[in-house]
């Protein structure tokens, strides 16, 4: 692992960012025959619905990987946050539709995590659970470890991040979903690991971006990369303790009002699609913002060979859901270094406890009797 400059106070967070390439290789090795058999038997059903769920970053993981799973499985795949399912279960769950629920959870201790799986069991006649988590002692893992209708897949122990923000935990769970239900294989994992290592080698350039101390950051992307933009914005908001404003949108949607957020102190990060058709729309917004604010106000990240991309990664041909796993390393570094520039402690940006690693204070209310079938 590269040496960390003495003046950098990244603590555990930077180590957890930089361990990701090796952690991803480990994730690929841990997907065993039992896991592939469990999933394979379910996705063979033509009527199967897949729900990807989690809270916060774990919810955004679903939004990022859903397009790839939808194309690969040719099945209905919906990304729905646990927070939405818990508060409005009848809006999202269908009793007569066989459903596989894929739960993402770093610890599995978020109040909504187990509550969601219980609601699914109550409101869906034929339901199965795939639990992707980093903590075998967490409530989600313990609840489902001995059930015939559930499979718990534990990520490598080192991905149970101790830093405040999810980094290696998030990308490892995303990759596990793409390996089990999507197009990922050992070759694509190695390609992503190589791409992330190349990005780590440029971390001083990312630190230089952070040193410009912009007050506003905008992240844009299309399709799966809109989910990536949302996670990127959250990462920066979390690690700067809300002191730096961040925003996300799709490349086309940004013009419809949200573009008002741009000012002379904004840095826009645009993720370019690996799809040539979609990439045209991403490049159009890059050109437009550069024309308004100047070249230095936009960072475009794309696959090798992409026009207008100042930062490229060898992810061409992998598809956007997979490319997002590697692109996310850039967003993590930028959030980390911006946090440090603003005098925050990335491992614990909220020392007074206003925001916690595992959400507290949530009351799970019982489902009314009249709401039950």
Would you kindly provide a written description of the structure presented here, covering whatever features stand out?
This protein has 373 residues and is an alpha/beta fold. It folds into two domains: 31-184, Glucose-6-phosphate isomerase like protein, domain 1 (Rossmann fold); 200-341, 3-Layer(aba) Sandwich (Rossmann fold). The chain is 45% helix and 14% strand. It is built from 14 helices and ten strands. The protein has a five-stranded parallel beta sheet, with helices on both faces. It has a five-stranded parallel beta sheet with strand order 7-6-8-9-10, sandwiched between helices. α7 (111-123) links the parallel β3 and β4 (127-133). α12 packs parallel to α14 (320-341). The radius of gyration is 20 Å and the shape is globular.
Give the SSE string.
HHHEHEHHEHEHEHHHEHEEHEEH
| Largest sheet geometry | 5 strands, parallel
Rg calc: 20 Å
The CATH fourth-level homologous superfamily of the largest domain: Glucose-6-phosphate isomerase like protein, domain 1
How do the strands line up in the largest sheet? 2-1-3-4-5
Look up the CATH topology of the largest domain.
Rossmann fold
Q: What is the overall number of helices?
A: 14
Approximate helicity band? 40-55%
Helix-and-strand structural type: alpha/beta
- Mean pLDDT across the residues is 93
Strand fraction band? 5-15%
Poorly predicted segments: 1-8
* Distance between the ends: 55 Å
Q: How many distinct beta strands? A: 10
Question: What coarse outline follows from CA principal-axis ratios?
Answer: globular
Give me the CATH architecture of the largest domain, please: 3-Layer(aba) Sandwich
Number of domains: 2
CATH hierarchy class name of the largest domain: Alpha Beta
InterPro entries: GatZ_KbaZ_carbometab (IPR050303), GlmS/AgaS_SIS (IPR035466), SIS_dom (IPR001347), SIS_dom_sf (IPR046348)
GO molecular function, one term: isomerase activity
Keywords: Isomerase, Repeat
Pfam families: SIS
